[in-house]
């Protein structure tokens, strides 16, 4: 009999048939609990529940049986105890297995295109860890290598053997050795069915702190018939992570990229739904440093590894050779340097002339260039030079290095420009700075054009007085310091004028003290007459400004 709103249900009285059905469902839930408590094999759990359902006249398919068992597992586990107000939170540092790349005790997702070397990278890391190496590819390895379980369903056993042999993880007889306890492969696969996940969970329970390498997610989920674009695509990964988490296991799961994606974002590069990267604590993207054109062979075999997630990201530039991976340094700095070199190689005309001159000038003595100076180089007016400089600045090749105050009444301050370089230290572009006296001023918070008081002139930090006329000095020219000059005028420490010793009419002006000119490090004079010992040389007579002043 069909119950309608006007029947017994409207008066709060349950029909007998509904009571019977609810009791039947309750029995199935109870039996699911009993099966979970008394049977460890996941496959047998499902079979026992379905057999019981057949006996009571309520047949179940595999999916429904899995849902009932999952609900029973949740009921047995109960609700975890939360952190409550007033309780101290865990503030311990991020536990790394491989610094900056693989986090310990959580879910790591490695996203990479086919044949880029993702399996080789992980096996190489495991080998270095096992053999007691402190670092791998420039990144620190933490603690002792745990037991390793490889769910390598995507590759045949022979391919895994090749990787293991190269990394010293097999015996001379070809037997598994080192930390690798179990290996599943294409010929003996493990899939992320409920049974497979439960089995891995049991292994983790019996071996806390183990490392599970899964290669690949697609291969391990193939039998489930999941659509990669569906929001439920991450379901098996989340279940596996939940099964391993209570036992402090580390999960490194390999997934393939979209063929159309060549950028550096692991979430966008991941094939299928973004739900999978979202489920991971850390995502790692491996990709070719330089993608070949369509139909072309991959000639540049360098690989970029970039991480993103809960912890600070890392970028590595590596390359797989016959005997394993090698490290080319910080990936960001190499990327920046090569991008800058490509931009420089493409320069033409006025921009090329100006940039080349600036680089040569900087290499000579780390001298920035003025806008007026570059007008002669570019053979154009100030407006066109400034336009060229802004274009070079936009390309990341140069930067504005401050400005120089006008030394002539009525003049305008001039912008100063210097070339960029790629910094290997911080992975970005910075102004070129060496170990010169000028660099020491920069490090101390000064620029070469900061007004300098007498107690800030010395690079050693000791106070000195402004140089007197006639003081022997050296000029920085062509990369070297050359003596044979004396101070002519040092009233402005940013525009010191010197005269050539013995030729007072030969002068050089607009020199910066302790940068372009410094006290003489060795005497330019012969032995003075006895009566002249201790007497400063006579100052040369003032002369007309140097026509090459700038």
Structure, described:
The chain is an alpha+beta fold and 550 residues long. It folds into four domains: 27-75; 96-337, P-loop containing nucleotide triphosphate hydrolases (Rossmann fold), CATH 3.40.50; 348-432, Arc Repressor Mutant, subunit A, CATH 1.10.10.10; 466-550, SH3 type barrels. The protein is built from 15 helices and 22 strands. The strands form five sheets. The protein has a nine-stranded mixed sheet with strand order 7-6-8-9-3-10-11-12-13. It has a five-stranded antiparallel sheet with strand order 21-20-19-18-22, with no helix packed on it. A hairpin with a 2-residue loop joins strand 12 and strand 13. Helix 1 (16-38) packs antiparallel against helix 2 (42-55), helix 12 packs across helix 14 (382-394) and helix 13 (371-378) crosses helix 14 (382-394).
């Amino acid at each position: 009999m069909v119950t309608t709103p006007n029947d017994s249900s409207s008066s709060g009285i349950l029909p007998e048939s509904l009571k019977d059905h609810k009791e039947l469902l309750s029995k199935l839930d109870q039996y699911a609990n009993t099966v979970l408590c008394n049977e460890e094999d996941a496959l047998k759990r499902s079979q026992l529940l379905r057999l019981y359902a057949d006996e009571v006249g309520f047949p179940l398919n595999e999916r429904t049986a899995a849902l009932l068992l999952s609900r029973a597992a949740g009921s047995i586990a109960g609700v975890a105890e939360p952190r409550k107000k007033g309780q101290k939170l865990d503030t311990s540092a991020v536990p790394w297995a491989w610094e900056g790349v693989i986090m310990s005790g959580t879910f790591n997702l490695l996203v990479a295109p086919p044949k880029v070397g993702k399996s080789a990278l992980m096996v190489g890391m495991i080998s270095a860890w096992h053999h007691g190496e402190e670092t791998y590819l420039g990144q620190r390895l933490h603690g002792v290598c745990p037991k390793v379980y490889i769910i390598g369903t995507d590759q045949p056993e022979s391919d895994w053997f090749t990787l293991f042999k190269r990394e010293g993880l097999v015996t001379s007889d070809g037997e598994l050795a080192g930390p690798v306890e179990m290996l599943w492969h294409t010929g003996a696969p493990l899939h992320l069915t409920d049974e497979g996940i439960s089995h891995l969970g049991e292994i983790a329970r019996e071996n806390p702190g183990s490392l599970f390498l899964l290669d690949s997610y697609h291969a391990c989920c193939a039998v489930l018939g999941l659509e990669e674009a569906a929001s439920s695509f991450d379901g098996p990964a989340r279940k596996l992570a939940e099964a391993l988490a209570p036992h402090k296991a580390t999960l490194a799961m390999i997934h393939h990229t979209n063929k159309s994606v060549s950028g550096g974002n692991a979430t966008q590069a991941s094939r299928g739904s973004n739900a999978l990267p979202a489920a991971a604590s850390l995502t790692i993207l491996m990709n070719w440093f330089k993608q070949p054109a369509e139909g072309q062979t991959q000639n540049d075999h360098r690989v970029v590894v970039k991480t993103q997630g809960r912890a600070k990201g890392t970028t590595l530039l590596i390359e797989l050779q016959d005997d394993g991976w090698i490290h080319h340094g910080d990936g960001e700095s190499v990327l920046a340097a090569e991008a800058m070199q490509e931009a420089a190689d493409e320069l033409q005309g006025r921009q090329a002339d100006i940039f080349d001159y600036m680089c040569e000038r900087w290499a000579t003595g780390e001298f920035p260039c003025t806008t007026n100076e570059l007008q002669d180089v570019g053979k154009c007016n100030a407006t066109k030079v400034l336009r060229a400089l802004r274009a070079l600045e936009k390309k990341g090749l140069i930067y504005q290095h401050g400005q120089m105050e006008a030394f002539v009444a009525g003049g305008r301050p001039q912008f100063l420009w210097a070339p960029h370089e790629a910094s290997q230290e911080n992975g970005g572009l910075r102004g070129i700075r060496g170990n010169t006296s000028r660099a020491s001023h920069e490090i101390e918070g000064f620029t070469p054009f900061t007004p300098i008081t007498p107690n800030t002139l010395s690079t050693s930090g000791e106070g000195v007085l402004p140089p007197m006329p006639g003081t022997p000095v050296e000029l920085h020219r062509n990369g070297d310091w050359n003596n044979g000059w004396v101070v002519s005028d040092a009233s402005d420490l940013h525009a010191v004028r010197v005269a050539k010793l013995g030729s007072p009419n030969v002068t050089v002006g607009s020199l910066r003290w302790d940068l372009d000119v410094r006290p003489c490090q060795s005497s330019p004079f012969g032995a003075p007459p006895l009566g002249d010992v201790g007497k400063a040389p006579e100052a040369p007579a003032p002369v007309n400004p140097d026509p090459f002043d700038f």
